Amino acid sequence: MKESRVIWFNGEFMPWEQAQMHPISQALHYGLAPFEGIRFYHTDRGPAIFRLRKHLKRLLYSAKVVRMEIQYSLEELVEIIKELIRRNSMEGGYIRPCFFYGGETIGLEVRDSVIEGVIAVLPWPNPSREFLRVKTSPYRRLDPRSIDINAKISGHYVNSFSTLHEAKESGFEDAILLDQDGYVAEASVENIFAVKGGVVYTPKLGSILPGITRDTLIIVARDIEFQVEEKDLRIQFFREADEVFVCGTAMKILAVGEIDGVAIGNRRPGKVTRRLAQLYKDIVEGRDGRYIRWLTFVN
After folding, report:
1. What are the residue boundaries of the structural domains of the chain, listed by start?
2. What DSSP string runs through 152-202?
3. Catalytic pick from 152, 252, 271, 281?
4. Per residue in 165-183, pLDDT tens?
């Protein structure tokens, strides 16, 4: 990282290298750290953050799941993030807010723990590949009967880590996780969609992280008069689909060209995938006035 980059840490803006955490932090030992990944984009009105308040509402929800009361309001966090982008003189990139318990104690009792927080902004390259080769993972998505899967918490991502690296070690680029009942849940860190007969399908809520990009695409697809169905779907349905794509804040929308060695379409982004990807790009870059409410302009 560039030493000149500014980071926000525990209420202060400071040089990147000065931000430090205690090695006995409960976040480090137990994964007790709610976080978000948020993108901001260059527009003709300067940098704009996409669905910032939606992300921050989920951050505050995730904090409550780990019994954490963040001392900053949603609007205070909005202003901190805008100022951080200004101080880093960035037109586009990735925002990572994260709160965690400090190093006052060890163990799972958090009543006496101090809550610390960090917000960083980073450059973020867009994926250069046209499609992904994926496999069905031998692992299962976290069971909602054992943990709150609606929260975005660092400890949950051991599941994603294991899924992604098992896939790569098997010669694939990502994997699809099934849920506890054998239905498709999501990819390692992305939600997943299929297109069949002109209808857009995606796994229903319950065993998946309710992704904000997923929510965006459902709204936009319905606005342009696609039928969208959220339902339980087997992996064979995806293998036989006309198009499959994954989506998330970091990668936006990326076609799946192959599942378990079975080609999807012609191994290229299909017509619906291309249309939704272009619409999404126009929205986040401020060119589609219908959704301007989703942008928080920094300046």
Report:
1. 6-122, 131-284
2. -BGGGHHHHHHHHHHHHHTT-SEEEEE-TTS-EEEESSSEEEEEETTEEEE
3. 152
4. 999 999 999 999 999 999 9
